[in-house]
């Protein structure tokens, strides 16, 4: 497998990251994740310090206890985490690429010093509240408001589908002010701030997803992130998290592909392994092609990032192409496993269901199509 040998292009340091994260995921997560998925739980307080020790939280950031690795090393880590489960990569993305990145990029020195070292260590957890119950793809039209009251800010509104929401020690909440959209740090336990979990999900079950309610939440004047005003603040963080998904999707697809190849080699029908039938080989060959291409796209965008920055449009390209490819691989792999493909005894349907969320969050497939459409025509078709 991996006919193109894309990983031969990694540096020694990047390969070390790959092997370390792969070993951690294989030992600490893979044997237990089907059970978490079935029960709809994620042992976040147990895993976060371990992920912190490995330097995976805010891995691409510098200072404040963060590892400061290159973009490709971070991407490779996301790939290996998501090969175990998209929920695991989601946790790391939200902690590092969203909550910590917002504080690192836009926070005051006091805010950085207070939160980042503990978040990098996995001792404090963060979440990122942008989406609202009635405003998902169009956050510019958000309803959550923050108004000045003396030297304080008072927040009212609701955020929906927030990963880590109920367990987070600090929520990065984006709200409309008289001065445009601003980010606020709202610590857990602030009066008027509550979080309740979303239940009955059939996707990302090994991940905590919550609704945040802000009812007259009073925070001090220095709770605002001073370094940014406007939607470019949260969107800048999204570009970081979307980049992690470009790689993560390759990991989820690879796990499905490997399960399909293993199964095809050993499962016999009509007196032969099903992998000996041309129709099965065609499925596996297309999976190989799709994942080889996705791996190259991830590596290319990662190197662009390291050479001075990938554009949001390039990251949209990668998120759109690679999640679509991984979902197609997962669906095809499921058919190879026949009836066994629908059970949690194999990883395929878990990944397949997870990828439905990955297709939707961090900008839906349609949002990234429209982003590329705008890039090639110069015409905005969002509104
Ligand atoms: P638009 O007028 O295009 O842009 C407003 C300002 O933002 C800048 N900008 C970006 N900056 C950085 N990165 C990007 N990707 C950016 N896209 C735009 C832009 O230059 C402008 O700056 P300025 O200085 O001129 O003010 O904004 P719009 O209202 O037309 O919206 C564009 C659109 C639709 C693409 C945007 O709203 C969008 O991306 N919508 C999708 C929302 C989304 O992705 N939500 C995700 C929530 S978080 C999440 O899902 C976490 S899942 C958990 C996990 O990651 O595992
Ligand atoms: P909508 O925006 O209502 O879209 C519904 C459909 O309409 C989609 O197919 C969409 O593509 C389509 N559509 C919308 N506008 C257009 C258009 N102009 N043209 C064509 N089609 C259009 N958000 C956070 O802020 N933080 C988180 O931590 C977070 N974690 C999440 C975890 C999970 C498991 C999930 C499922 C979601 C999470 N989200 C989070 C929310 C996620 O970002 C949103 O679900 C996503 O942005 C889409 O918003 P929506 O669900 O409201 O769909």
TrEMBL record:
| InterPro entries assigned | Acyl-CoA_Oxase/DH_mid-dom, Acyl-CoA_Oxase/DH_mid-dom_sf, AcylCo_DH-like_C, AcylCo_DH/oxidase_C, AcylCoA_DH/ox_N, AcylCoA_DH/ox_N_sf, AcylCoA_DH/oxidase_NM_dom_sf, Glutaryl-CoA_DH_mitochondrial
Biological process terms in GO annotation: fatty acid beta-oxidation using acyl-CoA dehydrogenase; fatty-acyl-CoA biosynthetic process
Q: Which cofactor does it need?
A: FAD
Which UniProt keywords are present, listed alphabetically? FAD, Flavoprotein, Oxidoreductase, Transit peptide
Give one Pfam family: Acyl-CoA_dh_1
Q: Where is the Acyl-CoA oxidase/dehydrogenase middle domain?
A: 127-217
- List residues of the Acyl-CoA dehydrogenase/oxidase C-terminal domain: 230-376
Every copy of the Acyl-CoA dehydrogenase/oxidase N-terminal domain together lies at: 11-123
Could you state a single Gene Ontology molecular function term?
glutaryl-CoA dehydrogenase activity
Entry annotated with the keyword tRNA-binding = no
Q: Would you identify the family this protein belongs to, as annotated? A: Belongs to the acyl-CoA dehydrogenase family.
**Protein name stated in the entry:** Acyl-CoA dehydrogenase
Q: Which organism is it from?
A: Actinomadura chibensis
């Amino acid at each position: 497998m991996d006919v193109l040998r894309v990983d031969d292009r990694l540096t020694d340091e990047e390969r070390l990251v790959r092997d370390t994260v792969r070993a951690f995921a294989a030992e600490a997560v893979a044997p237990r994740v089907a059970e978490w998925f079935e029960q709809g739980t994620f042992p976040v307080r147990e895993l976060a310090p371990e992920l912190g020790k490995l330097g995976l939280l805010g891995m691409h950031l510098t200072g404040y206890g963060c590892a400061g690795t290159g973009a490709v090393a971070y991407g490779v880590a996301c790939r290996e985490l998501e090969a175990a489960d998209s929920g695991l990569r989601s946790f790391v993305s939200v902690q590092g690429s969203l909550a910590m990145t917002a504080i690192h990029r836009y926070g005051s020195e006091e805010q950085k010093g207070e939160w980042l070292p503990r978040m990098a260590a996995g001792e404090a957890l963060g979440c990122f509240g942008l989406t609202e119950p009635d405003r998902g793809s169009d956050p510019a039209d958000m309803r959550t408001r923050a108004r000045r009251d003396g030297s304080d800010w008072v927040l009212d509104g609701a955020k929906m589908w927030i990963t880590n929401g109920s367990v987070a020690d600090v929520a990065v909440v984006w709200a409309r002010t008289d001065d445009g959209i601003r980010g606020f740090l709202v610590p857990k336990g602030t009066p008027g701030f509550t979080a309740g979990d979303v239940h009955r999900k059939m996707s990302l079950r090994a991940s905590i997803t919550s609704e945040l309610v802000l009812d007259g939440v009073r925070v001090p004047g220095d709770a605002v992130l001073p370094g940014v005003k406007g939607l470019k603040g949260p969107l800048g963080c999204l570009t970081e998290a979307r980049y992690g998904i470009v790689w993560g999707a390759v990991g989820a697809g690879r796990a499905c592909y490997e399960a399909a190849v293993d199964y095809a080699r050993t499962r016999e029908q009509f007196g032969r392994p099903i992998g000996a039938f041309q129709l099965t080989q065609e499925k596996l060959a297309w999976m190989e092609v799709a994942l080889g291409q996705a791996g190259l796209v991830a590596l290319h965008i990662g190197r662009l990032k390291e050479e001075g920055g990938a554009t949001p449009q390039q990251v949209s390209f990668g998120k759109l192409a690679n999640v679509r490819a991984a979902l197609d691989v997962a669906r095809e792999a499921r058919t190879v496993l026949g009836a066994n493909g629908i059970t949690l005894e194999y990883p395929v349907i878990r990944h397949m269901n997870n990828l439905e969320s990955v297709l939707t969050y961090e900008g839906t497939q349609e949002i990234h199509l429209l982003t590329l459409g705008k890039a090639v025509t110069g015409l905005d078709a969002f509104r």
